Amino acid sequence: MKKVLLATLSVCLVVAISSFSVKQDNPDAIVGSWKNGEGTGIINIYKNGDKYQGKITWLKEPNDPKTGKPKTDINHPDEKNHARPVLGLVNMWGFKYSSSNEWTGGKIYDPKNGKTYSCKISMENNNSIKVRGYIGVSLIGRTDTWTRQ
C-alpha cells in the first residue's frame, strides 16, 4: 500500500512540475527552431521588435526535383516573387504574446499553395507548439503540431 501511495505521489509531482513549466508567463518561450508536423521543414521563430516572426531555415527537399536547383516561391500570387528562394523565406510574421502561452494576430504564408492565412500559436509544452492557420474565424482552419529542434 505504501509503495502504491508513493508511486502515485511521484506521478502527481512530475505532472505538477511539467504543467508548471508550461504555465509560466514567458513571451519568448516560442523563440527557437521548430520542425513542422510533416517533418518537411524547420522554421526559426525569433523576436523582431515587439513581435515574433519565423523564417524557413531547413527543408527536407531543398531542391526542385525537376531542375535540381533550389526551390523557389513559384506558387506566390505575385509573379515578381516566383524567383525568390523558399529556403530563408520569412513565412510567419506579426505575432504578439497575448497571455497564457498564446501568440495571436499573426499571419502564416504557405509556399506550397501560395496562400496567406491568419494564424495563432499556443504552447503545448516546452517542446511543442500548436500552429493554427485559418481564414476569417479561428474555428475554420487547420492546426499543426511543431516540435522544438
UniProtKB/TrEMBL annotation:
InterPro entries: DUF2147. Keywords: Signal. Residues 61-81 are annotated as: Disordered. Residues 1-24 form the signal peptide. Residues 32-148 form the DUF2147 domain. Transmembrane segments: none annotated. This is DUF2147 domain-containing protein. It comes from Lacibacter sediminis.
